[in-house]
Amino acid sequence: MATCSSPTIPPSSFKHEKNLSQRLLSTKRNNSPVFQIRANAHFRRELQIKSSNGYPLNAVSFQEEKTESTISITVVGASGDLAKKKIFPALFALFYEDHLPKNFTVFGYARSNLTDEELRDMISKTLTCRIDQRENCSAKMDQFLQRCFYHSGQYNSEENFSELDLKLKEKEVGRLPNRLFYLSIPPNIFVDAVRCASRCSSSPTGWTRVIVEKPFGRDSESSGELTRCLKQYLTEDQIFRIDHYLGKELVENLSVLRFSNLVFEPLWSRQYIRNVQLIFSEDFGTEGRGGYFDNYGIIRDIMQNHLLQILALFAMETPVSLDAEDIRNEKVKVLRSMRQLKLDDVIVGQYKAHIRGGRTYPAYIDDPTVPNDSLTATFAAAALFIDNARWDGVPFLMKAGKALHTRRAEIRVQFRHVPGNLFKRNFGTDLDKATNELVIRVQPDEAIYLKINNKIPGLGMRLDRSNLNLLYSTRYPKEIPDAYERLLLDAIEGERRLFIRSDELDAAWALFTPLLKDLEEKKIVPELYPYGSRGPVGAHYLAARHNVRWGDLSDENL
């Protein structure tokens, strides 16, 4: 059996860094040239234990200035749907837009027996070119495919990863090698793949990073165990936990909208905001994913990660800077300030069969991969609260579901009623019609619009609710990059701002784990709702308990 070409230095080697910095400060006391030369030499020797992947940092810090670098991107699980539909197309889009480094190679790694040409043929079927570029698409596609290669192997085989290492070195020869691994595989084999990649395929002189796809466990215990296992072979800086919703254009624009516009920041608190709604809906069921989905459910699949991450970005305090750690520090503070969820704060549902327009739509349990007695929720609504000075008492309502009447993801900010409104007679008793509302539509048809009250032109005093609308397709006709493109580029460049840190993950699971445990132990039966409907009626009662009306119910034409 082949052995790994290079050993991995454990993360514990970083503890020497503090002593090194103290000794380096003392060098300032002696400015003689001979002393400085010796100090520099000593500095380089000391740095050999400081790199994030356990290899000498001096190769990165000093050789990189003289040696041209290259990056090897290995997609582990290359024959799966995610790789074919999202990862390879995103890499090609980055190449097409000239965002990838000049020197790069892409390797597919999976158990399937494929040749290089068979991999290229497989992924070429999903590649598309940007609509606003004039360059020949087929030529760019051919150039990209010629940089794609394949290696077949088991995910738990150090021998197979050592063979991959030899192939990577053949492509990297003469250049400083950096390596990025994308784990597009089931979570139960994450640790095996990381162990083999770390021991046998890490870059000998450059950086090594690993992108890990959700789910990051099923609860606090399993998530913590996964993190502990990964950190046996990687440091936190090497782990890039990806949540593709954080790469969506409107989510990334949240901080810009709030912190660079004076009109919004003073209003961003309990003093002016009545409630915040985070809404996610899909107009299709689990089709084809029933077996996977039944193990997780809508709360784990959508609410605990996608929606909670958006909530943290929305509600965080102003960070010290745009540095990744400063932003993630503020997000963690929000998550740790959230009130513990209870059963009374949540409504769960499951879609049932429905006939509409002469067509029969199946129930969730009609999926052959789903047990007939499954209590897994395909819909959930929850009321969350942040117990801090800015948001005390403001309900944050989440709603997520499958097989609903429309597909959308949006953030809705409903402001308080105008005190002593002079025009209340024009609105009647329903003051909610006069409420200002900021809507950030994440998908589809990205947009930001503000609902305001306005006088209808003409004689008399008739009021109308109008929209100040920023429709992205009209204002920015250039195609919006896919979220995976942004996140892959960030991982290549070492930008961690949109990736999830381990303490963020711990805080998120700490919020939802007790609730999930109660739902499963008490066998809470989900409320049934017809396929293609607006969801269970209980969601409206939940909102009403907090004096809230779901904003998406009156916006179907927007």
What does this entry look like structurally?
Helix content is 35%, strand content 20%. The chain is an alpha/beta fold and 558 residues long. Helix 12 (297-315) crosses helix 13 and helix 13 (324-336) runs parallel beside helix 17. The protein is globular. Mean pLDDT is 83; it is low at 1-64.
Concise summary:
With 558 residues, the protein is of the alpha/beta class. It has helices at residues 17-26, 33-46, 58-61, 81-96, 116-124, 137-145, 158-172, 190-200, 220-230, 249-259, 290-294, 297-315, 324-336, 424-427, 472-475, 483-493, 502-521, 538-545; strands at residues 69-76, 104-110, 148-152, 176-183, 208-213, 239-242, 273-281, 346-352, 354-356, 359-361, 379-384, 396-401, 408-415, 437-443, 447-455, 463-471, 527-530.
Highlighted features:
558 residues; alpha/beta; nine-stranded mixed β-sheet; six-stranded parallel β-sheet; 17 strands; disordered N terminus
Radius of gyration: 26 Å
Helix content bin? 25-40%
- The overall pLDDT, averaged over residues, is 83
SS-derived structural category:
alpha/beta
3D shape: globular
Strand order of the largest sheet: 16-15-14-13-7-12-11-8-17
What characterizes the major β-sheet? 9 strands, mixed
Distance between the termini: 62 Å
Query: What is the count of helical runs?
Result: 18
Count the beta strands: 17
Low-confidence spans: pLDDT under 50, at least 5 residues? 1-64
Taken as a percent bin, the fraction of beta residues is 15-25%
